[in-house]
Design goal:
2 copies of one chain form a homodimer. The first copy, chain A, is an alpha+beta fold and 95 residues long. Helix content of chain A is 31%, strand content 36%. Chain A is built from 2 helices and 4 strands, in the order E-H-E-H-E-E. Chain A has a 4-stranded mixed sheet, with helices on one face. The longest helix of chain A has 16 residues. Chains A and B meet through helix 2, strand 3 and strand 4 of A and helix 2, strand 3 and strand 4 of B.
Chain lengths: 95, 95
């Protein structure tokens, strides 16, 4: 199986541990780098997930990049304007 | 008045615009660098505050540093164990 150089995991509103497990799985199948991406309220979960993974499970992981940004979301049902939402990307590397 | 080289603003649960105003005030009194610090749910607010300030008000601001970490919080009333909470620091620089 060919390995992608960088695996991307989108963080949503599942419990943090399910994302932690996804990261551990990615690294244990020889992935060198995993990027977590999230927007809105899931930003806090993303930081939690990165910290739990590094502190409790994969202590050799390094945070090699953190980027923040803004994305435009289409208007919700019944609204006319699109909304701006903050985004985050955290890249973890096992070196 | 002597200017501190780096002003720190702690982000909590006030509306984002009140922190945006605090940042604008700091930079307009000749501050070169402002660091936003937060923990827990306020992490998302912190990213919002940084993005709103940069996109709408002070377009020459650069994000020069983003760091994440974990802090230990004392146990709440009626609990016996301390809790771990994620933290973020975002440094804005006007160059």
């Amino acid at each position: 199986m060919t390995q992608k150089p960088n695996d991307v995991i989108f963080i949503g509103n599942k419990p943090p541990m399910s994302y932690v497990l996804a990261i551990i799985t990615a690294f244990s199948s020889n992935q060198k780098e995993v990027t977590l991406k999230a927007r809105g309220q899931a930003i806090t979960t993303t930081v939690d997930v990165a910290e739990i993974t590094r502190n409790r499970f994969l202590k050799d992981l390094k945070v090699t990049k953190i980027a923040i940004g803004t994305a435009e979301m289409p208007p919700r049902e019944g609204e006319s304007k699109s909304r701006m939402v903050s985004t985050i990307e955290i890249t973890l590397n096992k070196g």
